[in-house]
Design a protein that fits this description.
By secondary structure, the protein is of the alpha+beta class. The protein folds into three domains: 30-316, 2-Layer Sandwich (Beta-Lactamase); 400-500, Helix Hairpins (Orthogonal Bundle), CATH 1.10.287.130; 501-660, Heat Shock Protein 90 (2-Layer Sandwich). 51% of the residues lie in helices and 20% in strands. The chain contains 17 helices and 21 strands. Strands 2-1-7-6-3 form a five-stranded antiparallel beta sheet, with helices on both faces. A five-stranded antiparallel beta sheet has the order 11-10-14-13-12, sandwiched between helices. It has a five-stranded mixed beta sheet with strand order 16-18-19-21-20, with helices on one face. Strand 12 (282-288) and strand 13 form a beta hairpin. The protein starts with 7 loop residues before the first helix and ends with a helix.
Length: 661
């Protein structure tokens, strides 16, 4: 099947449409990856901060337990009861503290670590706790507080209920690592121990207490309340927290498929390896029970710095994926609308091209019939209009003799040569521009390498100059070498300062003092002998945070430029003040020199641009000054009229605390 030929308008529109669609697809593809990576990165940063907040809650709970045990151990009544061996009084007192403060255990041992009072199960006493890591640490250092794994036999001493609270059977969990066990009988406890001493520092015993974390949801729910404030997404909590005993969830608000707490499920194999085996933090997406979360895991360590569990916080990944999809859908719809809008514009725009060409087609048909007087009526002032004029001229020339046709051919050839020459010149200019751009990049890279040889040349030329008599014919040549080498070194130094500006060393400074120091350095030069200096500084200016030496460099550059603009004769005015809203300090430096041309003001802060004579400036001073002021979050502006002088205004921000001083 043969398709009919396409019109010029259709070809133009299709060509533009292909370019627009390809560009749009590439932009959307790149944009989708960029938006997704940005949103996920921000979520990972947030979950890292959330984990820090979870540690604060975890450690605060541990500190509360240590404080309860410590304050209880300091009670004078307890000391007296221990000395009097009043076991009933000790039991009543410690039991009341345990119940009021919500502790799971609170026990007392003698100075050898033998339990003399067990408040939860008073009938079981006399067992040796001296080898318990917390009790042993308290005996050695006075107190200890840390998470601890407590074996089932120790939990049974406190009561069957506490052992049952710790007992958990493993629930099969997708992506979890294989373990030979299928249950956990021990428990994780936040535990503190304190040595009890009398007024003579004699050890009376050890008091230790703690809270079992297995099936205790106070910490994880507190984290969820503080960090995520109960926010939900499509009926699910956006944020969750978990305490793991090894890789087992013992306290969590992560829901399982039934919506209950996922107690007894386990962490994924990848997280297990990274956190429990390698001891590293894990901040990435992870499969948690039955959903993908953006998660943060860090190991929980006991008092021996052994990894005994994991603290976790995580946010549902789905909201961030949906946000990314919504953003990209919005972008796609906007792109589609733009394509439709561009097609409408293209339709009318191509009419300006195709209509004159259609007239020319009609004209060629008439000329083919022999009507050489027919002309194309096109009024556009573009290439199509030029083509129509040339066409009309061509038909007129067909009536002339062969000689005129030859002359026209020569004229046309000449025009082609001129156009070709122009194109070659433009191409040469473009190549030269690219070379200059590359040279600029290379200059910044090799400036350091040039600086060292220049330093050597300068040193040795100085030495030769000092050892050469002034009457020697080589003296002036050596003097020129020193001068030109110094100038080259200044240019390289300026280039380095511009290409690799050092970071400002911030401190509180007084702007008036910096301006005075800058003026004091330069005003002794011969250039300033016939210059009148007027200073008008605002009093009680707030101190600003800036690099004084870098600002001094800026002021000296502007002041020296002003003196050179006046040829060493005129008035130099220095003024400082606060701006109208009190957010910036202004320093104005005004001269009565020859001023700056309007076309030069636009290029004034460009590197290597200078209005001075060749050899008298590097063209980097104001560019470096501009860069320094930008790093101080300030601005530098210039007002100038030819023959009337110039004013440079430097504005620097004032910190809020400086305003209040």
């Amino acid at each position: 099947m043969k398709f009919p030929p396409l019109s010029l308008r259709t070809k133009l529109i299709l060509s533009f449409l292909v370019v627009i669609v390809i560009g749009g697809v590439l932009s959307l593809s790149f944009g989708s990856k960029l938006v997704k990576s940005t949103i996920i990165h921000e979520a990972q940063v947030k979950v890292k901060h959330d984990l820090s907040a979870a540690w604060m809650v975890f450690n605060k709970k541990l500190s509360e337990i240590r404080e309860i045990v410590s304050l209880t151990a300091d009670r004078e009544g307890l000391h007296q009861a221990i000395k009097n061996n009043d076991k009933n009084s000790i039991l009543r007192s410690l039991k009341r503290v345990r119940e009021e403060k919500g502790l799971d255990i609170l026990n007392l041992t003698d100075k050898n670590g033998i339990v003399v009072t067990r408040t939860r199960n008073p009938g079981v006493i006399g067992d040796d706790q001296s080898q318990d890591e917390m009790v042993r640490e308290a005996l050695q250092n006075g107190e200890a507080a840390s998470p601890q794994i407590v074996p089932r036999e120790e939990l049974l001493k406190e009561g069957q209920d506490l052992a049952d609270q710790a007992y958990m059977e493993f629930i099969p969990t997708p992506k979890a690592a294989l373990r030979p066990e299928n249950k956990e009988t021990s428990g994780m406890m936040l535990k503190a121990a304190v040595t009890i001493r009398d007024e003579s520092r004699t050890v009376l015993g050890i008091l230790y207490g703690g809270i079992l974390l297995n099936r205790n949801f106070d910490i994880v729910d507190r984290v969820k309340e503080i960090v995520y404030k109960g926010e939900q997404y499509k009926g699910r909590d956006r944020g969750t927290a978990t305490i793991f005993q090894h890789d087992l969830r013992i306290s969590t608000n992560v829901p399982n498929e039934k919506g209950d707490r996922a107690i007894g499920t386990r962490v994924s194999k990848e997280v297990n390896q990274a956190v429990l085996v390698e001891g590293q933090a894990w901040i990435d997406r992870a499969f948690v029970v039955n959903h993908w979360y953006i998660t943060a895991y860090e190991p929980i360590r006991n008092i021996k710095d052994e990894i005994i569990g994991i603290l976790y916080v995580g946010m549902l990944e789905r909201p961030y994926i949906d946000t990314t999809n919504r953003v990209m859908l919005t972008f796609t719809l906007l792109a589609a609308l733009c394509v439709v809008f561009l097609l409408v514009i293209l339709y009318f725009a191509t009419s300006r091209i195709t209509n004159p060409l259609h007239k020319m087609v009609i004209a060629t048909q008439e000329i083919a019939k022999g009507d050489l007087s027919h002309k194309v009526e096109v009024n556009s002032q573009d290439e199509v209009g030029y083509l129509a004029d040339s066409f009309n001229q061509m038909t007129a020339n067909l009536k002339t003799a062969n000689q005129k046709l030859i002359e026209w051919g020569k004229t046309l050839e000449k025009k082609v040569e001129e156009r070709t020459r122009e194109l070659k010149e433009m191409q040469a200019h473009l190549i030269q521009s690219e070379k200059l751009a590359s040279l600029g990049k290379l200059a910044a890279g090799i400036a350091h390498e040039i600086n060292n040889p220049l330093g050597g040349i300068l040193i040795y030329s100085h030495l030769l100059l000092e050892n050469t008599p002034k009457k020697s014919p080589h003296y002036e040549n050596l003097k020129k070498i020193v001068k030109e080498t110094s100038r080259c070194k200044d240019i390289v130094k300026g280039l380095l300062e511009f290409a690799r500006p050092k970071e400002p060393e911030m401190s509180q400074i007084n702007l008036n003092d910096v301006l005075n120091r800058s003026l004091a350095i330069v005003e002794g030069q011969a250039l300033f002998q016939n210059i009148k200096i007027n200073k008008k500084y605002a009093s009680a200016l707030p101190r600003i945070v800036a690099d004084g030496s870098q600002l001094q460099q800026v002021f000296m550059n502007v002041i020296i430029n002003a003196a050179e603009a006046m040829n060493g004769k005129g008035t130099l005015s220095l003024r400082t003040s606060m701006d109208t809203d009190g957010s910036h300090i202004e320093a104005k430096i005004t001269d009565t020199g020859h001023g700056i041309k309007e076309e030069d003001k636009k290029r004034l802060f460009e590197p290597f641009f200078s209005t001075k004579e060749v050899g008298k400036g590097t063209g980097l001073g104001l560019a470096i000054s501009y860069s320094i002021i930008q790093k101080h979050l300030g601005t530098i502006e210039v007002e100038s009229r030819e023959g009337k002088g110039s004013t440079f205004t430097i504005k620097l921000p004032v910190l809020e605390e400086s305003k209040n001083d």
